[in-house]
Structures are given as C-alpha cells and as structure tokens.
Amino acid sequence: MSEQIIDLKSVSAILRRHLGALIVALVLGALAGGALGYRVPPSYLSTSIVLLPPIPQASSTVGTHSIDTQVQIANSEAVLGPAGRSVSPQLRPSQVAGRVQIIAPTTDVLSITATGPTAAAAEALSDAVAKAEVDYLQAAASSLGQAARKALAARESTLKDSLAAMNAEIAKTQGRLAHESASSAAGKADAAALGELTAEQGKTVLQIDQIEKEADAAQPLDGQPGGGASVIQQASPGISRPVALQAALFGGAGAGAAFLLAGLLFVLRGRRESTLRSRDQIADAVGIPVAASIQSRAPRSVAGWTSLLESYAPDSVELWALRQLLRVVTPGTPVSLAGELEDPPQPAKVVVLTLAGDLPALAAGPQFASLAASTGTVTQLVTAQHHESANALWAACASLPPDAQLRPRLWVDTRPDVRPAAQLVVHLAVTNRQHPELAVPGVGRAVTLLAVTSGAATPEDLARVALAADEAGHAIDRIVIVDADPLDRTTGRLLPTERAQHLPLPSLMTGSTRPGEATTLEARRRVR
Are residues 405 and 323 both part of a single domain? Predict the structure, then answer.
C-alpha cells in the first residue's frame, strides 16, 4: 500500500476529520484515568529544609552557581545512597531519586520534599536525605581528606578499646593488691604491674586527646559552604493529596494520553490511506474537472428509492449545483458539453457512471433526474447497466408500471428505448471496480458523468473506470463529487496546469514611490 507524505496541514485535516472519535477517546481516557486515580492509594508528602552557610565575601564563587551546584550534589548518589541505606526498608539511590524532589527557594536554602506510601515513610525519607546532605557538606568542607578522617577515627577507636582494656586490668590489679601484703612477692609484682599500666593509661589518654584536637582543628576550606550547614526544619508531618484532586490529575493525564494515542493512530492510518478525498485530488487523478458537488440522499430499501424519486427536494445550495449541472448537459447553453441544438430537437442524453459499492454516489443519477423533472424538463431515467450492489434501486425501478410517473414529467424504465416526449434521458450504469466494463447500447452521443463519493475511490479505481469508459466510446466528460469532505476547500474545476496559471505572483513592497516613478513601473509590468 502506498504511503502519502504527511505535513502539518494534512495532520490538521486528518485530526479534524476524526474530531468526533478524538472527543470520545478524550472522554474515555479521562474516565479511565479518574477511576484509576480513585483506586490508587494516595502518596504522602513531607518536606525538610537545609540551611547553607553564606558564601565568604572574599570568595569568587557566584551565589547562583553555588546553589545550583548544591542542588546537583543533593541529587547525586553521594547523598541519596547514604539516605536510602538509613531508612527501612532500604532503598536504592535510583528509588530515592524517584521519590525526592529538591529545589532551592533561595540562594542559601534547600527544600527537600519526599513522597512515600505512608506519612511515616515520607517523613523518614525526607529527614534521611536532609541529614545525608548536611553530613556530605560538612565532610567535604573539612581540611582533612576522607582517608585521613577515616584513619583518625580508626586510630581513636583502637586507642579507646585499649584504654578500656587497661582500665579493666588496673581494676583487677588494684583488687588483688587490696588482699595481698605489700612485702610479699605477689604484692610486689602486682604493684610493679599497676605502675606500668597506669603509665600506659596516661599515654593512651594523651593520644586520644591529640586525635580529638586534630579533628576539631580541621577548618572549612575557603569558599566551600557546608561547614555550617544545618537542618533548620525537620520533616513536616506527612500529608496526602485529596482524592478528588488525585482523580482529577489522573483523569487529565489519561485524557491527554488517550487523545495523543488516538491522534497518532489516525495520522498513521491516514498516511497509509490511498483513497482520494479532496476535489482537486479526484480531478487530478484522471485529469477531468469537477462539474458539481452534491449531498447524497441514498436509501437502502426499495421503498426508500421509490420515495426518493417521488419527492426529492434539495436545499438551496444543492439545488443550485444541480441546476448548473443540468445546464452542462443541455444542448445550446453557453456551458453545454452536449453541443448545439439539433433540428429537429433531440433529447439530451446523460450517462451517470458509478463504482460498485459506492452507495452514496449511486443516488446522484436518481436525484439529478428527479430534480430535472421538478424544473419542468420531461425526464426519462433508464437503469442501463446493473450491478448487485444496486439491487434495491433496480428492484424499485423494475416494480413500476410501464407508463407510471413517480412525479410529474418523470418516467423510470429498465429498457433503453427513448420515449418520444422525453427531453432528458439519464442512463444509470454501475461498473465493477477491479474489472470495469461499460455497456450502454443504443445511447449514442451522450455526456458522461462520473459520480464518486469523497474518500470512496483510489487513483487506480478512477483510472480503470476512465479507461473502460473511453474504450466503450463514452469518455468521461465531468466528475460529480458526492458528500464532499467538509474540510475540503478545493473546487476541482481547474487542472494542475490551470491552477499554476492562477497562482498570485509575489510582490516586493519597498515603500511608496514618487509620482514620476509610478508610470515607469507600470510600463515595466506591462512589458513583462
């Protein structure tokens, strides 16, 4: 199947053509989204606020850049990872990132909003991220490197463990000395051991004090915020969205998604659609101009066809179109395709050709014949070439008595014999799409009209029927468009070469001209 090139204008036309279906998709999407919003448990929100220290005046760091950097740091794995490990159940950094929103209301404040299935979970995650942010900033602001801090902490822990062991040993030794004689060998040994332990205890305490001083002496580096970072607002109580608001949000999202999906499907289907819709497209497919555009009143039953022939009454717009078409097929009129009047006068003959299965176009011939009779023209409608898709119309015509008039001056016949009083003879012919043939014996010279519904035929269909009509000696003279697309603004009355001649030429406006120059410019245009 051939694919058409789709531009913005074509997309707009396709969407407007399916506006009703798009509205239905919009409503269904909104209803589905709203129902889902009521069924999904609402999420809770909790917010913590972190205060950053002011940037030193001597620093060349720009405040706006600094706060943007802090937001990026807070959203990094260095902060989200420890925060996720500190909550229960533990969360991966990617999960924390999906549940946390970090913004900077001012240049020295970070607002951390966390979501969770419960109020407690949202509060815990908000507090964890805020604490992890402060810890990271304080660690990064220290003059000690990360490895040095870890080494000091490990050394301090080891010394404290040794001090605890020595304190325990000193206590045991002192207990033994309390029950031993100072002059005994055991007493002298314990006294010597107690002296050594006490000396080691003093050294260990001094070492621990030195490590603590080194840690306390580490100062923030110049221009690095974080040494004074703090959580100025703990996690606020978790609150959830109102159910109605959540349903409205889900409904809006569902409506938008359904609209976009339906629109995409219609555009893709339109891109692969090979049927012709506009008047210019149909006319250009076979190089034949459009004579008129009418609305179909095609019924589906035998009684409906009989009623159409008896009482067809078009509105003003359609009446004017059919009257213009009547002038095209009537001999002697300025726009006639039937030539000049003959002497003696002969009835005007018209062959209305339609494609099998195109029910709206099938009504063009009966409507035209009924309208002609209502204007005072003695009209004969002949069902010339039958197809099974037109069984109801053929049955309605065959059931009429031979001399019956469904309305004044309108006869309907199944035989091609022309009635003596007839002024206009309309021959109906329905042909197969794939293997079209045209056999209307006894017609002679006639104006051949092809009635086709907008969007009901492909270029191949029209080309095949045009070839069949030409081989039968009844080349198609004009096209009648049935049920034209409401969005179609073309006429189909001009072929591509003729439309090119009517295109407006571009003009260059350079300002007003002096009175003496106007005549010269006009002369140049006339020369061109």
Answer: yes
Q: pLDDT band at residue 1, thresholds of 50, 70 and 90?
A: very low
Q: CB 161: neighbour CB atoms within 10 A? A: 11
Could you give the 3-state DSSP secondary structure of residue 205?
Answer: helix
With tokens 């034949």, the residue in question is 288
The pTM of this model reads: 0.56
Instruction: List Cα–Cα distances, 179 to 176, 185, 255, in angstroms.
Output: 6, 13, 90
Residues 6+ apart with CB under 8 A from 255: 26, 27, 29, 30, 33
Residue 339 and residue 465 in one domain: yes
Q: Is residue 436 located within the same domain as residue 298? A: yes
Tell me: do 251 and 389 sit in the same domain.
no
Give the span between the Cα atoms of 351 and 328, in whole angstroms.
Answer: 13
The pLDDT value recorded for residue 53 is 75
Claim to verify: residue 85 and residue 202 sit in the same structural domain = no
Domains contained in the chain, number: 4
* pLDDT per residue as tens digits for the range 452-469: 999 889 999 999 999 999
- Is the residue at 227 inside a domain? no
Domain of 185 in residue numbering reads as: 146-218
Q: pLDDT tens digits, residue range 216-242? A: 655 554 444 445 788 989 999 988 878
SS3 assignment, position 506: coil
Is-contact 480 294, C-beta < 8 A?
A: yes
Largest separation between any pair of C-alpha atoms in the chain: 166
Residue 67 shares a structural domain with residue 162: no
- Tell me if 82 is assigned to some domain: yes
Judged by DSSP in three states, 302 sits in helix
